[in-house]
Hints:
The complex is a heterodimer of chains A (664) and B (741).
Chain A: E1 2-3, E2 6-7, E3 14-15, E4 26-27, E5 34-35, E6 39-40, E7 43-46, E8 49-52, H1 59-73, H2 81-98, H3 104-120, H4 124-128, H5 130-139, H6 141-150, E9 163-168, H7 170-174, H8 181-189, H9 193-201, H10 207-210, H11 217-220, H12 233-246, E10 264-268, H13 272-283, E11 287-291, H14 300-303, H15 312-324, E12 328-330, H16 337-346, E13 349-352, E14 358-359, H17 377-390, E15 402-406, H18 410-421, E16 426-430, H19 435-441, H20 444-453, E17 456-458, E18 461-469, E19 472-484, E20 493-496, E21 502-505, E22 508-511, E23 515-516, E24 550-552, H21 555-558, H22 563-583, H23 590-601, H24 627-630, H25 643-650, E25 658-663
Parallel strand pairs in A: 10-11, 10-13, 11-12, 13-24, 15-16, 15-22, 16-17
Antiparallel strand pairs in A: 1-4, 2-3, 2-8, 5-6, 7-8, 7-25, 9-25, 14-23, 18-19, 19-20, 19-21
Helix pairs in contact in A: 1-2, 1-5, 2-3, 3-5, 8-9, 8-12, 8-25, 9-12, 12-25, 13-15, 13-22, 17-18, 18-20
Chain B: E1 4-8, E2 11-15, H1 21-27, E3 51-54, E4 61-62, E5 73-75, H2 79-93, H3 110-117, E6 135-137, E7 140-142, H4 152-161, E8 166-169, E9 176-179, H5 192-196, E10 202-204, E11 217-222, E12 231-239, E13 242-249, H6 259-263, H7 275-287, E14 290-293, H8 299-312, E15 315-317, H9 319-328, H10 337-341, E16 345-349, H11 353-356, H12 358-371, E17 374-378, E18 392-394, H13 401-412, H14 418-426, H15 429-436, H16 440-450, E19 456-460, H17 462-465, H18 470-483, E20 486-490, H19 497-503, E21 516-519, E22 525-528, E23 535-536, E24 545-548, E25 553-557, H20 568-574, E26 617-618, E27 643-646, H21 655-659, E28 669-671, H22 673-679, E29 686-691, E30 694-702, E31 710-713, H23 720-723, E32 729-731, E33 733-736
Parallel strand pairs in B: 1-5, 14-15, 14-21, 16-17, 16-19, 17-18, 19-20, 21-22, 22-23, 27-31, 28-30
Antiparallel strand pairs in B: 1-2, 3-4, 3-5, 6-7, 7-10, 8-9, 11-12, 12-13, 24-25, 25-26, 27-32, 29-30, 29-33
Helix pairs in contact in B: 4-12, 7-20, 9-18, 9-19, 13-15, 13-18
Amino acid sequence: MSRVYFSTWRSEQINNIGKSEDVWEESAYKLPQQYGEHGSAKAFIGWDGVALYDTDVDVVRLATEYAAQYQKYSEACGRCAPGRWGGRILYDLLDKIARGDGERDDITHLQDVSKNMQLTSKCEIGKTVPNPLLDLLEHFESDFLKCIDTKQPSKHYHQEIGYIAKITAPCMDACPAHVDIPAYIEGVRDLRFDDALIATRETMPLAHTCGRVCPHPCEDECRRVNLDEAVSIMALKRLGADYETDRGFSFFHPANPKEPNGKRVAIIGAGPAGLTTAYYLALEGVACDVYEELPVLGGEVAVGVPEYRMPIDKYNQDIDLVKDVGVNFITNTKVTADMMREIESEYDAVMVATGTRISKKVRCENERAEIEGYWSAIEMLDQINLYVKYGIGQDTDLSGKTVVCVGGGFTSMDVVRCAIRANASKVVMLYRRDEKTIIRNTTYEEYHEAVEEGVEFIFHSAVAKMEDEDNVLKSLLVDRFELVPDPDGGRAQLVKIEGDSFVLECDYLIPAVSQSADLDLLPEEWEIEMTSWATIKTNGKDYMTSRKGIFASGDCEYGPMTIVNAVGQAKRAASVMSRYVHTGEITLSDDEVMEDQLRRMRVYDKSEKISGYLPGMPRQSSEVLPTDIRKSNNQEVNFGLTQEQAISESERCMRCYYIAMVAS
Amino acid sequence: MNKINFKLDGIDVEASSDETILSVARRVGLYIPTMCYLKKTTPSASCRLCVVEVEGVDGMILSCQAKPTQDISVTTNSEALIKERTNIMKLYSVNHPLECGVCDKSGECDLQNKTAEFGIDQQSFSAKDQYREVKEWGLLGYNPSLCIMCEKCTHVCNEIIGDDAIEIEYGGYSSTITPKGSDTLDCTFCGECIAVCPVGALTSSDFHYRANSWELTKVPSTCPHCSAGCALEYEVKNSHGGEKIYRVVNDYEHTTLCGAGRFGFDYIADGSKDEMKLQSAVDAIKGAKAIRFSSQISNEEALMLQKIKEQQGLKLFNEDARVYSKFTTPFSSLATREDVKSSDAILILGSRISSDNPAIRYAITEASRHRGASVVNLHPIEDALMQNVITQFVKYEAGSEEGVMALLVQRLVCDVDDATKRYLDSLDDGYLSAESNFGEDELDEIAAMLSRKESRVIILGADLLSHPRAENIAVLASLLQRYAGFKVLVVASQINTVGVSLICDLDLDDKSIDGTVGYGMPAEFTISYDDSADLQVAPLSQQEGTVVTLDHQLLPLNVAVEFNGYVLNDIANILGIGKRDTVDFTSELPQSAGFKSTAFDLLENFYQHDGLDTRGYFIDQTESGANSTLEDIEDLAEFNGTVIYRCDEVLQFNALTAKCAALGADSALVGSAQFAVAARVSDGDLITITSAGTDRVREFKLDNTLKGTIALEPMVDREPLSLLGRYRYEKVTITKGSCDE
């Protein structure tokens, strides 16, 4: 809910003009009302309408400035005739009216050009820029006519008014790293894969990784869903990265790294969050030392995500990208509290990005770590991945063994599919909820590939007790549950079915229900604030902890979450830190404030009706390695889209760029 | 392939799964206007003129990009569509400079045509004008004020040529085309961007402001510079008393031309008639033991030479065509550039293809860009120009081609006959691998890549044809054709290498015979297009006739500019075997070799609107039936010390291209920093290169894009006889300074 004076946002028509403030009708949307970090906005104008918060807004000027922003930002576009020239003409005509030189014919021209842009522009930015302008022309016609007829400038034409604009898109908004998705898809469509990759790397250094194993929240908020199916956004990311790697190009960076500025940052943990922090700080000229406990770089993506999903040679490309900008890595070094105290004094800022590397218990009777056969998911995946990917340690052979995993998320899928590849004779996944939920928690492909490979899923089940003989696991007592709808309409409850429990003989129980953070490295006296989930607390905007200069991002901040979430947090944190190391102040840029406000409002509108595109173009899906070949080895399962599929898929993208703008 | 049925303006039509609404419309003859559409590239979708309406679908649909779905009903023309298209044309006209009177494009300008078509005769709104600097980029110029940002140029440069040398600098209203990542244009100067420019924004610097399009007469012909035989049109105009070629253009919708074809035409000769000289040529032939000739001649000339051979009982020497003929014998058929374009896996062996044959390079670029083809380049020297298409580079040792081919065959063939199996099993792959430096890992990578590929092509280059073991290499390669699903493309070196090989019964030229007449080649009596020859005859661009390209397509040549001297037919007539005109021989080309009896005047030379190639005809490839046997592989040759690779610059092919001012032939030896250190030379040094008893003085130029220890030496300026029968790599000694000093 937002307090507004006037709003045409989405389909609402709120007009409090002339009404007393206490009877003002409110907007149903969480509209951006902040102007920069500390100011409040008087108006918000965007692709889907306009909202005025203040009675004194100069709407003619507002319209002109919005058209001007389109001009300014059209470097994101400028790629079609109606947008390129139409946008310029809109601005020239509006400014002509606003400065008092307009004529009545100009309104007609404005409407003609607007309609042409709405109907024929290449991307949504060109199609939607006229929307709020036409709203203003309709509802505030008299203000425009007054300028024209009196040949006077609009009321605040010569005043200093600030405007902050931002380009967004539903997918960019939904992506935790806010990757410029339409730009990288356009790169694929134009067969300019280097451009595609550079667009990705503006905010996402792990292009190989997030082109393979991202759960792609962007695809849930892809506007194409409103027409047929989401664009295969994630898979298209891989094209640019593969282009660079396959052809042996040196790295395409989004910008040349700045000269070293003498500032130093320590980063604890070389996983996605640590790598991302280091990459963007290094581009800003900050010297980065990354401390890593393991002998290898990459964090959970390296030792958690299996080779068949994320080949290490590809991940190493992403890591080498970070090395290429001069980041220094110190491996085999577990940072202790003592070291942290030293590090704090030596560096200008510190990023804690240690992830969550402790497997949580399944909470059953007799759950004791000393029982042989009780094996935490993290330890199991460490052992397998270190051997498969780096030849460190020993090979894992589960021949003749029965493996039971309790989970339901990505980690548990990795466990069961690795167990199959380690030749286990039987692999069972116990999950408390149903098939639909496991697919929602992971992906459709992931679940079905596991089923094809022979994993047995038992839904609505949970381990009640571990049975051992002399501390050797023998079997599990498994309870069954049913979903009982809440008569009051609340969430359905899982209720144990009495008498339906059964015994499952097994050699291993692998808990993969969740992980928690090991934060012993934080000196106690720092009294760093924690969340109720025992992760490091920040405000989720600047990622500074309760201790000045100490930042946190990734899973140790959020709890076990996705790679792209870690990247998004770390990218933002790197931006804040790049300023902090110089000024000692924690600030967000105007762009970042807008980014957060837009996310709060949500750019994607699932009820919007799409026009200008033909529905029914099928989404392309990658070919995968046949089950009988893949289940016995670690070859990458997913071949990625073929070039023809990728081009076809990229043509489904509707380039849903929008401009949002607030006025001071 | 699933077919889609739908309605276009009420007509039932059928589309294949990769066709767009626009392509179906064009195919069935329905007009939808476009400004940015170029059939051979992905759509840039910038002009938006091609919007159509679909029943039941909101808004306007972009037909160049949208593929039809089953049962939709499309309207290509309506009042609403015309209105929006007209509005777009109004936008296009805003601030477009009114300089049609002097613009190079005037008269054939898409903007001019469409503005007239939509009746835009006044401007009801405007935008603030801006200053835009005109750019000079070597052979081309760019005027951003005239540019309509259709993006055709950037698309062809990236998707068809592969230079990827220009890009769009985004800036909305001030968007512009700019050299990629640089202030100056660094490209191979094919000029295809000029060809596709719909307005006068990109122009040829030499042609700029020299003529209006309507003053020029088009002469459709075939480019004579390399074996690809690309279609081109000479545009000629009569000025200052004589006809001159003003420029060369191409039907860019369906063909692509490299810079040699486009800019290399100023070698034209006037010619003169001196009966004494003609008679002395006839006498020379009568007294000759052999005629040595080049492959830069027409089929008709080749046939006349063959008839002279039969009549005079002399020998015919053309090592280029003879070697090609022997090399291609083991193959059941040869691939074309179209096969390359539609392939998804390409191996290149023994060629620096970017300069050997740009047309094949373009086909590779298309396969890479449009089909995602994997491209493996096997060669001793890496080619930076091809980096954006090559997915695997295999560096082998110069001289070891036979070993490389054997290893490829051993690894890639399956289900071979017993004899072949025994042969392959007996190969000493350890030795071959060690000597060639072609490792197991590299073979594994190739095999893994091929496992998911269905359309495989191997391109065999001039290094192999000139190799002392060429014949066995060819027999080995034929196993890839037979047992590994490869199509084979052999890079013929000159415009009519293939034609000559089909027409003439050639003898081995060991240079030992005295009493030779040269035809386009040096000999005791030389007949050639060069004005220093004993008798000057017309070059190919000034003759009628036909040639056979590497695609085995017979194509017509037309007279760009009249030649006032003699042609071979004049000699043939004196000898009593001539005809009224040279092209009277066209219908008599040997049908046993695959030629048809079609008369010259019945040969077409254009592409239909739907892209159908009507030019000339395709030669029936007759299976040789020759039973080739595999020979044991003895020791592989080793090349140590200072080694050069005979390789011309991009756009240089022969003495004619070397003469063209626009192509600026450079005679320098070009080497890497590593080569410079090893050979103890530095950039700019004057050096003497000695090999096999010949010396030549050149400048040394350091090229930082080159790697390795082998330098590139031009061949266009080398004495052709000294190169006869010689492998492309040479051990040389290099001394600083010229030997005269």
